[in-house]
Design brief:
Helix content: 55-70%
Number of strands: 0
Strand content: under 5%
Largest sheet: none
Distance between the termini: 63 Å
Shape: rod-shaped
Radius of gyration: 21 Å
Number of helices: 3
Length: 108
């Protein structure tokens, strides 16, 4: 792999003259975290995708982050929201089953 020339940002994209360089988007990572949050009903990855997506969309709107990954970031944030709510629902269901089982004397 070739190294980027001196003065080129890490992503290899040269900013147009007179503009400030923008940060690269993290849409793929946010989408992956959101999908993991849905598939595993994992609260942690869902919340991380939700928060990262919200922050990155704000950065994109302000022009400080590459807007090319807007749709990936938005989809990842939505998946994170869904994964978070699924995680909350499954946790509530598990607690409910444990409570009912305890009330009925199943465990002892």
């Amino acid at each position: 792999m070739q190294d980027a020339p001196q003065g080129t940002p890490q992503g290899g994209v040269q900013p147009t003259p007179g503009t400030t360089p923008v940060k690269p988007h993290r849409g793929g990572a946010i989408l992956a975290l959101g999908i993991i949050g849905i598939c595993l009903t994992c609260l942690i990855t869902g919340i991380i995708a939700w928060v990262m997506g919200k922050n990155d969309l704000a950065e994109m709107s302000a022009g400080r982050m590459d807007r090319e990954g807007y749709s990936l970031t938005q989809a990842g944030m939505i998946c994170g929201i869904i994964g978070t709510f699924l995680g909350i629902l499954s946790s509530a269901y598990i607690l409910f089953v444990i409570f009912i089982s305890g009330m009925l004397g199943v465990f002892g």
